[in-house]
Amino acid sequence: MSATITMVTREDIDRMMSSVGGVQGNCPTEAPLKSKREHLKQKSDARVTGWTDTLAAKRKAKLDWKADKARQDEEQRKVQDAKDAARHQRVRAVTLSNADKLIREQTERVRQFRSQQMLVDTIDTRDRQLEEKKARRKSEEAMEELWHLAVMDDLQKAEEKSKKETEAEKKRSLDLAEDLSRQREERQERIQLQQQAKREEEVLMIRKISEDEAKKEKLELQQKNERRATAKLEMEKNQELLRMRQEEAQRREMERSRKCEEELAQRNRISKARANLEIKHFEEKQAMKKLLSDRASEELKQRSMRECEIFERDVKNKQERERQKEEAARKKHERERADIDKSRRHQLQAKVKDREAERELGELYAKELARITSQKQDLEKRKEIDRRKANVQLREQQRQQIVANEAARRSRNASALAEEREVFQQLAHEDDLFRQFVNAEIESYKAAGKRTALLERATLRV
């Protein structure tokens, strides 16, 4: 359950006491009681002032907190207002500075200085491009030199390799020819030994047969002729067979020699054809390189010839234009000279006529002047008197006007002098600002390593 708190203030207590006192009437103890009550109230109030959990203390703390909060907010607003004012002042100063810069940028000398800056930047960029081009050209020339050295090295290696291969092939061919010749000699020696052995065998056989025939001749005298004829036939047959065998062996030997020679010739032809093919390939490569170099040189020659022709044509055209211009100028000068001579003759004729007319007119004028002079003398006398009077009045007016004009002139001169001083001061201030701006730009260009001679020259001109 929630407890209900009933608050009774001091006014309520006084009101209740007064109502009770009014009902009971005047009491002799009322004054001491009232003083005691006030004393107790003062003690209670003094004791209550140190309490922090009372409603009055909480209300006072809340009011103090609100006052502190309002004071802090006001101080923060003042600080923020000061910051905003400073920021607005800085923004205004920056805006005015930018406006001054824009106005200064629109002046003629600043635009000339900017154009000089653009020229300096362009020259610096061009110099940097030229240096890069030189470096790139040097690197290209170095690469061309390396490529040429590599190509020459490859060609030398290819030539050495082809020479080595040709020498090796020649050596192999010589070794093969020596082997073939040695084999042919060995074969011939072997065939000769075989033939000699066969001949010895045939001789032994013939001897044996002869001995047998001699022995049998003693035993068989009747069959001697028949056996001799038979032996003769066999001998002839054996000789024929031996001859055929020798021819067959010689034919086979010749066939083997021919095959070996053909094989050797074939290898020699192959080696020669290979060498010729390599020489042809090398010559084709050299011819192609020579063709490319000749074509490049021819193109360069034609380009230089075209450039020379264009230059000669331009020179001829320029000379022709100059000649035409000189011819036109000469003709124009002749025409002007003729016109001047013609005009001079007309002027001389007109001058003679004018002199005649002036002489006649002078005579008439002299006569008329003599007539008018007498009339004017009387009129001038009267006018002289009037003029002197008018001159006196006029001099007085002129003196007054001179005094007024002198005063006005002094005031105008003073105001013009003051305006000129202000203008000169303004121009001097602008010149100082411009010099500061130019010096800052020149220092920045010097720090960047750019040329500043043109900018300094432009500054001196300004």
From TrEMBL:
Residue ranges of the TM segments: none
Any Pfam family the entry gives: TPH
Record region (Disordered): 67-86, 157-197, 239-260, 316-350
Keywords: Coiled coil
Extent of Basic and acidic residues compositional bias: 157-190, 316-342
Residue ranges of every copy of the Trichohyalin-plectin-homology domain listed in the record: 103-437
UniProt name for this protein: Trichohyalin-plectin-homology domain-containing protein
Species this chain originates from: Thalassiosira oceanica
